[in-house]
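As the next step, I selected for study one protein, both as residues and as discrete backbone shape codes, as given directly below:
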Amino acid sequence: MIYGGADRAIREMNRQNLKAFGLLKLMKADELHVIRRIKETYDASARRARTRYYEIAVEAYILAMIEAGKSNKDATKAADMDIDAAWVLAMLEEADPVTLYAFLPEKDRKAARLAEALEASPDKGKEIDKALRYWTVQIGQYAVTAVDRARLEAFRRAGIKEVMWNTERDEKVCEECEPMDGEVYPIDEVPPKPHINCRCWLTPVTE
């Protein structure tokens, strides 16, 4: 499954974030303490995510190279050259066409918004739970993005010029994605995913 590695990582990160945000509910009311704890929680979660995104991207890259006809040895060697910490950091610093924001600046904005909400709201637990839901969406989306970007990188390395858009072709396919099923695009002209958590995938078009 294309997103199997991403889904495993998402489940693990969600468990870790559930615990971390739960600890925020135990904070005392000192304003500076609260702001610091919130920032530390988001920063620690983002560091974990960067590590997992690297692992996800390497796995996706290797599988895509093999899908494009390369040996496991060549795929692994190419992954060592193309996917590294700098690759992941660039992904997290760039504006994403699906989310319409960059991961790292948005992380800081979410932390600041939670701190403001806790100061203003009488229901601290509700605000923390809401912040966790929004953060969970962001964490999950960028796991999918890591897979998609790594696969395109691998296809380029393998010399693939065109790719085909694929949907699951079931009742869950949305109205935006359904017309794109089977469409072929030049590899540098692939349209962005039409919505968050889109699980459509690209396959190489070969002679």
Remarks:
- The radius of gyration is 19 Å.
